[in-house]
Amino acid sequence: MAKNMAFEEPVIKLREKIDELKDIASKADVDMREEIETLETRLKQLEIKVYSNMEPWDRVQVARHPERPTTLDYIKEIFTDFIEFHGDRNFGDDEAIIGGIAFFEDTPITIIGHQRGKTTKENIRRNFGMPHPEGYRKALRLMKQAEKFGRPILCFIDTKGAYPGKAAEQRGQSEAIAKNLFEMAGLKVPVISIVIGEGGSGGALALGVANRIFMLENSTYSVISPEGAASILWKDASLAKQAAEAMKITAQDLKQMGIIDGIIPEISGGAHRNVIAQALAIKECLLDELTKLRLLSTSELIEDRYNKFRVIGEFIEQ
């Protein structure tokens, strides 16, 4: 069962009331269509009010929703004939990052993405979507393969951050992330990254050096989690809500600052409400952007990527 978030409690209660009336009407053979239609109209108005006025912390909760669609969910709905590849040809296979090749509208494409679980067992298997260095090396191996065969690259970003454990550091976590940043900057094929959930720190950026970066409407992208920032700034993780507001981590803030290229609208209430419809919105965005990027030459693709990141952080003193 989906976990309810505090800000949407009024919507949840009204939905339950409508379901209750429908159940009564069906069992008692009573005509309650007028009452149900009235409540459904009120529900639509309430959804618009609630979901169009979400605060940054509300969006953090939606991005972390346990039933939020993952990379594999979108692969299933958007692409065909997906073949997953495993291992970094050095240490092992990291299931927190998945990757492989598939067809996108009859065009071969390389897909790489963070993968978290929806159950405790699956989260343990996927290390809660926090990759080890071998995960990033697997991703880079697939990127270089895509470059060799001229395939566009699509990255789905959804991680709290790279795994901070001792073993990961011993195997070169920082070096693996840095190598990805360096190599992605010079890839000779189109690269598109989409933040579908949480985009945390270098763990997210290691798949984020792209020609185009998009975010789902309720996703987040930041150097640190709100709880982590609150712990550092105010020595109190309970102030995460205030930190989320101050950090400008929402898609709306990042688009305004020019860090991302666009926002992909979500279904009312979040992507988990309708995976198929959300996948269609992502597909339309990909079709449009890949069509544009394919018109660029190799040198233009690299220059386009360089110019994109070069201007991030620029400001004019008043």
Automatic annotation (TrEMBL):
Listed name of the protein: Acetyl-coenzyme A carboxylase carboxyl transferase subunit alpha
A single GO cellular-component term on record: acetyl-CoA carboxylase complex
The UniProt record lists the keyword Nucleotidyltransferase: no
Swiss-Prot/TrEMBL catalytic activity: N(6)-carboxybiotinyl-L-lysyl-[protein] + acetyl-CoA = N(6)-biotinyl-L-lysyl-[protein] + malonyl-CoA
Oligomer status and interactors: Acetyl-CoA carboxylase is a heterohexamer composed of biotin carboxyl carrier protein (AccB), biotin carboxylase (AccC) and two subunits each of ACCase subunit alpha (AccA) and ACCase subunit beta (AccD).
Pathway assignment: Lipid metabolism; malonyl-CoA biosynthesis; malonyl-CoA from acetyl-CoA: step 1/1
UniProt enzyme class: transferase
Biological process, per Gene Ontology: fatty acid biosynthetic process; malonyl-CoA biosynthetic process
InterPro entries: Acetyl_CoA_COase_a_su (IPR001095), ClpP/crotonase-like_dom_sf (IPR029045), COA_CT_C (IPR011763)
Domain CoA carboxyltransferase C-terminal intervals: 35-292
The keyword RNA-binding is assigned to this record: no
Function: Component of the acetyl coenzyme A carboxylase (ACC) complex. First, biotin carboxylase catalyzes the carboxylation of biotin on its carrier protein (BCCP) and then the CO(2) group is transferred by the carboxyltransferase to acetyl-CoA to form malonyl-CoA.
A GO molecular-function annotation: carboxyl- or carbamoyltransferase activity
Localization terms from the record: Cytoplasm
Homology family: Belongs to the AccA family.
Gene: accA
EC number of this enzyme: 2.1.3.15
